[in-house]
Structure formats: structure tokens, C-alpha cells
């Protein structure tokens, strides 16, 4: 329900650090080593890419904005020197590997004493400056004090910019190997044991009671990006409503904050939009729907025992996927570390209604593991092989469900309840980005199932017949756009933002361009044949990524 962060005056977070000195960014360097006593520095071996720019991938949609949002200005050589200072007997960096995710840049340093340290630098889109880093450190320290969850120790961290020019965290490298790399090779029994161990780790988190009012920690403002202006593609202005970031005492207050987050994204200029299709909806329509949703989520839904039962304040790692889990190389069923605690927060349990570690359905054709394991085509796969694959998926899923039911009942309850209780809450913070038709459809579905869900009173949403008629066309357009995006993601092996590896960007761009032309041509044919009332402009507007002729 609220993010956990350190109050600097209580924990004394900089007590172990030396006095800080403002460091000038050094971009021109000459020597061949990074050492403690070097006066001239160079990029260490292994770091082939620019440490400041995002180089791991490109975007087929809003590429310039996305890459610019991940550019970080800092003093890389000051970071190298700090890493060396934190490792006893180390004199220089012998190798450095750069890794990038959606929210952070990571440098894995190998030092001449054999030790490996990991430095992580957050992008501006990761969350609010200072709060995000402090919250993560507090979460790690709190869990280390209250649980036995294996978490890498950090050597140093700073939410200020005076030492290297940006925030950073330096940690010990996680022991073991990434589960992502070994999961496809594990047998069914090993997978079952690993999932069971993961469920026990989840149990330790879900059994913690909040609010935490001890001597060392406090509950602070929520650092979730939907409560802050961190998304360069969907900026929040907070001119229509003031920031509502917590902490919150009740589920009603929390739900209200989600509504306020949605209102904050509605631009002052009602004509600002990435397209002119009616499913987007005007600013006034968004405000009207969100005001109706406000009544439902703050006065009606909280009165149901089902929502109350799943409102337990729950701290849970937001991304317990195989890339963030390390296991023993000798015994891959033994979890040795959980990394990346950024964005971990205290939420009502129902916020995790769709939460499932990605390795659970590793044999699914849609899984990210599909390319790493021998899954035959549907035409050539034998009935016996298909049955075994489906059985293994079911075993993994049941093992996880049984673990939740036994050790984390509030989370398990979210899996067996009707999702209609929670879907509206998932959509309202992003109302403007997804379109008014999406919010309206959630309200329609909720009204339809109102009695079945046993929600007291009469649903606050009572649409007219005219509204429902207009909505039908709007929602059809929204569904077409959504299906187009899913088709593009599958065809280009991308995600919803259009990300592809840098080395595949040019080829993916050509395929994307061809797909767009095919879509335009098919739309023209259908229009000319009278199969639908559409125009070329309609087809261009529905295309979800850059390439519609306007960008």
C-alpha cells in the first residue's frame, strides 16, 4: 500500500561513506587501466559500448524519446574508482560488462583481486529521483533484517549526484547462475522444487505485517511511476488534481489515489492526442468516467467481503521472473539470490491478481523460453509430446498454486475470485493512455456482473442506450488497434513499446514498414468493396506504432 524507504536521519545511510567531493565529468581519457592512483583513465576492457547512451535496443515507436529517456550523464571513471575503493586489495578493473533493462543500466565489474561488483544506475523513468533509490535500499535492508530471503549485499549507494554525477548502487555480485539460463535444462522434479522454494520466499514477504513503525524504517510516499511524472510518452501535469502519493491508511484512500493518478494524465488541452479516433475520448469524457469510477472504487467495491479479504497490505517483489532469480549451479532447485528490488512496494494483495513468475508456463508456445527449448510446430508435434508438454506446464502451475494456498492465502484468493472485482482498478491510472472506450467497457462489464459479484447497492454507472450504441463502434476500433499491436509484437518478436535488439532494428523496421503497407492496402480493399465504413485516414490512425504517415 505504501513504499518502504529509509529516513536518512534515522538510518544514517551515508555514515560509512567518505566526505563527498564534487567530481567533474571526464570524457577524454588516455591510460590503459583504471586504478586507484591513476591520473589518466580509460574505458576498461569488455565495455565496448558507450556507458552513457542506451545501446541495447531500439524502438519501432517513439524511438528518439525512448532512447533519450535512458541517456544518463555521469562520471563513469569516478564510478570505476569508487568500485575499486570498495574492494579490499583491488587496484584496477580488469573487465566491465554493460547490461541494460527498461529502467536501469548495470555495470558488472571484475577486479584484479578476482572480486565482481555490480553497479546499477537508474534511468529517469525508473521513478522519482532520490525516493526510488532510497525505497529500494530500505526494502532490501528491511527484508534482510526480517526474513532469510537471499539478497545480495550492497557496498555503497547514493541518492545524490555529488560523487559520480547521478544516483547509484554498488552491490556484491549474486552467487550462482541466472535461473533463466538453466530452467529449460532442468527436469520436472527440479522445477517443482524450485517453484516450491520460490513460494516459500513469497510466504516470507506476505507474512510481514504493516504499517512498519520500528526504530529504523518508516512508510513513505509511494514511488510507483503512475503516481509521478516519469513517463516521457504519457506525461502527468497534476493541474487538475494535486499529487496523491500516500501514505494511505485505508483501501478507500488507496483506490482514490489510483483515480487521481488517472486524472493527472488528462492534458489541459483536450485536443492533445496521439490520434483522433473516437475511442480515445475527450478530456471531459475521461473526467466523467473517472468520476463514476471514483464512486465505485471508493464507496461500493470496498464494501464487498471479497475485496476486503484481498486488501491485505502486502509487500511483494514486483518482478519475480527467472532473470531476477539466481540458483546454485550444482543444484538449480536451490535459490541463491533474488535481485532487482526496485519498485517493490506495499500494495493491497489484489494488485497482484495477475502475478505469476514467468517460468511457470515455460513450455507454452507464447513463452519467452519458446526459442530456448525444442518445441515442435503444431503440425509435427506428436500427441504424446504435446501431452507431456502440457502436463509439465500443469505441474508447474499447480505447484505454484498449492504453495500460495498454503503459505500466502490472500494472494491465492486473488487467483480464484472473479477478476471483474479488480480490473477497473488496474485500468483507471492509465485512462488517457488506453482510451475512454477501455474504461467504459470495464464499467459496462462490472455493471453487467454487479448482482453476480454480490456488490451492495446499485452500480453507479447507468449508461443510456445512446451511449452504449456509440460505445460499440468505439470499442471495435480499440480492439482492432489492440489486435494489431499484438500481431506486430508476435511478428517482430517485440514488446508493446516496439522494442527490438539494436542489431535487428534495421531489418525489423523494414518488416514493420511492409506490414503497414499491407494493412493500408487491405483496408482500402475492404472499404472499396463496401465491407466496412472506413477511410485510409482511419486505417492510418489505428496503426499502433510510428509509420502511420504522421510521425
UniProtKB/TrEMBL annotation:
<dbReference type="InterPro" id="IPR011009">
    <property type="entry name" value="Kinase-like_dom_sf"/>
</dbReference>
<feature type="compositionally biased region" description="Basic and acidic residues">
    <location>
        <begin position="530"/>
        <end position="540"/>
    </location>
</feature>
<dbReference type="Pfam" id="PF01636">
    <property type="entry name" value="APH"/>
</dbReference>
<keyword id="KW-0496">Mitochondrion</keyword>
<dbReference type="GO" id="GO:0005739">
    <property type="term" value="C:mitochondrion"/>
</dbReference>
<feature type="region of interest" description="Disordered">
    <location>
        <begin position="530"/>
        <end position="551"/>
    </location>
</feature>
<feature type="domain" description="Aminoglycoside phosphotransferase">
    <location>
        <begin position="100"/>
        <end position="348"/>
    </location>
</feature>
<comment type="similarity">
    <text>Belongs to the AIM9 family.</text>
</comment>
<dbReference type="InterPro" id="IPR051035">
    <property type="entry name" value="Mito_inheritance_9"/>
</dbReference>
<protein>
    <recommendedName>
        <fullName>Altered inheritance of mitochondria protein 9, mitochondrial</fullName>
    </recommendedName>
</protein>
<dbReference type="InterPro" id="IPR002575">
    <property type="entry name" value="Aminoglycoside_PTrfase"/>
</dbReference>
<keyword id="KW-0809">Transit peptide</keyword>
Amino acid at each position: 500500500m505504501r513504499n518502504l524507504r529509509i529516513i536518512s536521519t534515522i538510518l544514517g545511510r551515508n555514515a560509512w561513506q567518505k566526505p563527498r567531493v564534487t567530481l567533474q565529468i571526464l570524457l577524454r581519457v588516455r591510460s590503459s587501466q583504471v586504478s586507484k592512483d591513476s591520473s589518466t583513465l580509460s574505458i576498461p576492457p569488455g565495455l565496448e559500448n558507450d556507458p552513457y547512451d542506451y545501446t541495447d535496443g531500439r524502438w519501432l515507436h517513439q524511438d528518439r524519446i525512448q532512447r533519450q529517456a535512458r541517456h544518463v550523464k555521469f562520471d563513469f571513471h569516478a564510478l570505476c574508482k569508487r568500485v575499486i575503493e570498495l574492494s579490499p586489495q583491488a587496484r584496477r578493473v580488469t573487465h566491465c560488462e554493460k547490461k541494460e533493462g527498461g529502467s536501469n543500466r548495470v555495470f558488472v565489474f571484475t577486479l584484479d583481486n578476482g572480486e565482481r561488483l555490480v553497479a546499477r544506475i537508474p534511468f529517469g523513468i525508473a521513478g522519482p529521483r532520490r525516493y526510488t533509490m532510497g525505497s529500494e535500499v530500505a526494502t532490501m535492508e528491511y527484508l534482510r533484517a526480517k526474513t532469510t530471503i537471499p539478497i545480495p549485499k550492497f557496498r555503497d549507494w547514493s541518492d545524490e549526484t555529488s560523487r559520480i554525477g547521478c544516483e547509484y548502487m554498488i552491490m556484491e555480485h549474486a552467487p550462482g547462475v541466472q535461473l533463466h539460463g538453466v530452467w529449460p535444462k532442468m527436469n520436472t522434479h527440479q522445477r517443482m522444487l524450485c517453484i516450491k522454494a520460490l513460494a516459500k520466499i513469497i510466504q516470507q514477504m506476505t507474512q510481514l505485517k504493516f504499517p512498519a513503525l520500528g526504530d529504523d524504517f518508516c512508510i513513505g510516499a509511494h514511488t510507483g511511476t503512475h503516481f509521478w511524472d516519469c513517463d516521457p510518452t504519457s506525461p502527468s501535469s497534476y493541474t487538475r488534481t494535486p499529487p496523491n502519493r500516500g501514505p494511505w491508511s485505508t483501501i478507500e484512500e488507496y483506490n482514490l489515489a489510483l483515480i487521481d493518478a488517472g486524472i493527472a494524465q488528462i492534458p489541459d488541452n483536450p485536443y492533445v492526442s496521439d490520434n483522433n479516433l473516437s475511442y480515445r475520448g475527450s478530456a471531459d469524457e475521461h473526467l466523467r468516467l473517472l468520476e463514476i469510477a471514483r464512486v465505485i472504487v471508493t464507496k461500493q467495491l470496498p464494501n464487498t467481503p471479497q475485496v476486503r479479504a484481498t486488501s491485505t497490505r502486502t509487500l511483494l517483489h514486483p518482478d519475480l521472473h527467472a532473470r531476477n532469480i539466481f540458483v546454485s549451479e550444482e543444484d538449480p532447485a536451490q535459490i541463491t539470490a533474488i535481485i532487482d528490488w526496485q519498485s517493490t512496494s506495499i500494495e493491497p494483495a489484489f494488485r497482484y491478481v495477475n502475478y505469476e513468475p514467468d517460468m511457470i508456463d515455460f513450455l507454452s508456445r507464447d513463452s519467452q523460453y519458446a526459442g530456448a527449448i525444442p518445441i515442435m510446430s503444431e503440425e509435427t508435434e506428436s500427441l504424446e509430446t504435446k501431452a507431456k508438454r502440457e502436463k509439465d506446464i500443469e505441474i508447474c502451475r499447480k505447484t505454484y498454486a498449492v504453495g500460495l494456498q498454503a503459505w500466502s492465502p490472500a494472494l491465492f484468493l486473488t487467483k480464484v475470485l472473479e477478476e471483474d472485482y479488480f480490473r477497473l482498478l488496474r485500468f483507471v491510472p492509465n485512462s488517457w493512455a488506453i482510451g475512454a472506450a477501455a474504461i467504459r467497457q470495464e464499467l459496462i462489464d462490472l455493471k453487467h456482473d454487479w448482482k453476480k459479484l454480490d456488490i451492495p447497492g446499485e452500480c453507479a454507472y447507468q449508461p443510456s442506450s445512446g451511449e452504449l450504441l456509440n460505445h460499440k463502434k468505439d470499442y471495435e476500433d480499440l480492439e482492432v488497434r489492440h489486435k494489431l499491436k499484438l500481431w506486430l509484437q508476435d511478428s517482430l518478436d517485440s514488446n508493446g513499446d516496439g522494442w527490438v535488439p539494436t542489431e535487428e532494428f534495421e531489418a525489423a523496421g523494414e518488416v514493420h514498414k511492409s506490414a503497414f503497407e499491407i494493412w493500408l492496402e487491405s483496408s482500402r480493399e475492404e472499404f472499396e468493396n463496401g465491407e466496412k465504413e472506413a477511410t485510409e485516414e482511419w486505417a492510418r490512425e489505428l496503426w499502433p506504432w510510428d509509420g502511420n504517415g504522421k510521425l
